[in-house]
Design goal:
alpha+beta; two-stranded antiparallel ribbon
């Protein structure tokens, strides 16, 4: 066992760190969009994307952006630029060290974006406060989860 003390670091970067890499979207139609750099900084933006994805391959970055944009589609709506930028921040924060790690992180980010879009359309993320919800009887035998404990309905 090592006697060295480990120093923990915060995940929040302070100081003169650049802001997270972002993308703007030029909509082709409701299902397609073309990513472009904010503020017209194309060369710097593309290099930052390569660094965020942990790759030197422009083809990998382009394919990954299209996958992220596809995952950021809102059901019965268009593409969410906020979701695309959230995925980019997620990926950049994970700091993948190559295409293999980046592929896994991209999959996690896309799955998260798609799951959140589905939850939002189901009303699970935008539910009204408890006081304004109508009481609905729970069927017997269903499981109700509250915070860190669960109980069986109908007891």
């Amino acid at each position: 066992m090592s006697t060295k003390l480990r120093v923990t670091t915060n995940s929040v970067v302070t100081g003169n760190a650049p802001p997270p890499v972002r993308a703007r979207l030029r909509r082709v139609n409701c299902n397609q969009a073309i990513p472009y750099p904010p503020d017209g900084q194309a060369r710097e933006w593309w290099q930052r994307l390569k660094k965020a994805f942990g790759t030197a391959s422009s083809a990998f970055v382009e394919a990954s952006l299209h996958q992220i944009i596809a995952a950021a589609r809102l059901p019965n709506s268009g593409i969410s630029e906020i979701a695309v930028n959230a995925c980019l921040a997620f990926i950049e924060g994970a700091k993948p060290q190559g295409e293999d790690e980046a592929g896994l992180v991209i999959q996690m980010a896309c799955t998260h974006a798609a799951a959140m879009a589905v939850l939002e359309t189901s009303g699970a993320l935008t539910a009204p406060p408890e006081a304004s919800r109508p009481e609905r009887p729970q069927p017997r035998g269903c499981c109700v989860h509250t915070h860190s404990r669960s109980r069986l309905c109908g007891d």
